[in-house]
Amino acid sequence: MCGIVGYxxxxxxxxxxxxxxxxxxxxxxxxxxxxxxxxxKLSCYKKTGKIxxxxxxxxxxxxxxxxxxxxxxxxxxxxxxxxxxxxLSANGKFAIVHNGIIENYQVLREKLIADxxxxxxxxxxxxxxxxxxxxxSGNFEKAFYQTLSLLEGTYGIVAVFADEPDYLMVGRxxxxxxxxxxxxxxFVASDVSAFLGHTKQAVYLEDNE
Length: 209
Ligand code: GLU
What we know:
By secondary structure, the chain is of the alpha+beta class.
């Protein structure tokens, strides 16, 4: 299990995501990535190795008013760029970061493949993004709850949906998540140290919240 960061607000969050991940570096990791949402389009950048490796792939003009980031400690699937988080759904509209282990991912994956979903990674976490797409019928929040109800194992998850840029959905069971209340923005992270430089107001989530 490694680190998660997320931001939603008015500012470009790319620097916060990268710096936040660097503050979580002490937890150890094998890859990192960020995904930002701008004008209803998600852009993902991920790379094995140090966070600076991923940072060096970012175009200088990249902008996001919301976004998610992840440092991975691989549990399922090798250490590859494709297995690094964030993971996108098949239609590219949902992106997730996940800390923890989805114990029943193989069963879920087989069902999704039978439904025509094409996977790009061998990580357990990618099923979460696919399930969001599959369960979506007009309401992001409902799709998120429905998806969580299908997962067995442990998770801290942050999800973003291209068509509803005013929301990040977050949920935890067995992996830590904490919200940071900023001035016109909200942060989320697996460890408060990721956003302490931006706000002192933290709300620790309990399991099943
Ligand atoms: N189980 C996931 C993976 O292997 C998440 C690992 C983590 O928490 O960093 O990709």
